[in-house]
What we know:
One of its GO terms (cellular component) is Golgi membrane. This protein is an alpha/beta fold. It is built from ten helices and nine strands.
Amino acid sequence: xxxxxxxxxxxxxxxxxxxxxxxxxxxxxxxxxxxxxxxxxxxxxxxxxxxxxxxxxxxxxxxxxxxxxxxxxxxxxxxxxxxxxxxxxxxxxxxxxxxxxxxxxxxxxxxxxxxxxxxxxxxxxxxxxxxxxxxxxxxxxxxxxxxxxxxxxxxxxxxxxxxxxxxxxxxxxxxxxxxxxxxxxxxxxxxxxxxxxxxxxxxxxxxxxxxxxxxxxxxxxxxxxxxxxxxxxxxxxxxxxxxxxxxxxxxxxxxxxxxxxxxxxxxxxxxxxxxxxxxxxxxxxxxxxxxxxxxxxxxxxxxxxxxxxxxxxxxxxxxxxxxxxxxxxxxxxxxxxxxxxxxxxxxxxxxxxxxxxxxxxxxxxxxxxxxxxxxxxxxxxxxxxxxxxxxxxxxxx
Length: 397
């Protein structure tokens, strides 16, 4: 009996010990399992968040389809004060002897926040005001051709000579030609130059001016001002020629051999001396210096050389609207190419050799078959034009 009691007591103690041990194991297992669950949940959440961020970043397009600034800001990551979209189309600079690849992604960077604008990036879009506006130019007629002449606000003499030569609207009888000069606000002697501009406007009525400074790096703003002016005040024109004030321009050849009034007006038409396989210059000593912060791509889309190019008037409104949604670059002609690329409208190849991008010595019959020749201005332009206009019909085709 004592033996049974001892054995029974031993078995009951063992049983209690065993039960207690198993309970402790179960509790430890539950704590371990709960810990693993929490770690697993946190791990899955972390990887999901990381994956969402990566895919969002990789698919964030550097150009926006909306022109509404509030919609554009909503697309930016609010956690990033200075968001920089990725440019998957960027490639290393190729060997100069090889053709440069054209951008595979949109080269038009989305609008930056106002606090992140690079000093060389012209402020745009911006509510610039027209200070001088010859809006009556197109009220009584729908011109076939508008000449947008680019020049400095203080350079009165160049404008006077152009009014005497190829910019003289009375020269062209069979088609309506309108000439306007695009200027900004003078950096030096601002008040005096502005008074002269207002007096000049009262006499000739052909100056278009907005309240941005008249500098080389604002040439893009000046051209966009011309696009805006056509869109708002001359929307029924047929064609436009944007041209610098140091050019010889053969308006007759432009009208009758390239644009041809007898044919239907083209749409989505943009032509000139086409430049391709070029990129921004990165060295600061160059006049055309463009840092990566302004334009990251190593190549520009094809564009028409800035001294002179022609386009159908419908393109003025399209380019003006495109410029509201992408970052403006100071190289005016390159920016026009970027706008064309954004709109998927390539420049049109002109007949060969009619847009001359450099200076050649004057030859009557040679100039009679050209539209533009660079580096003619002042008294030299006046003398060349007198001879050309008087004798041009003497050249045989």
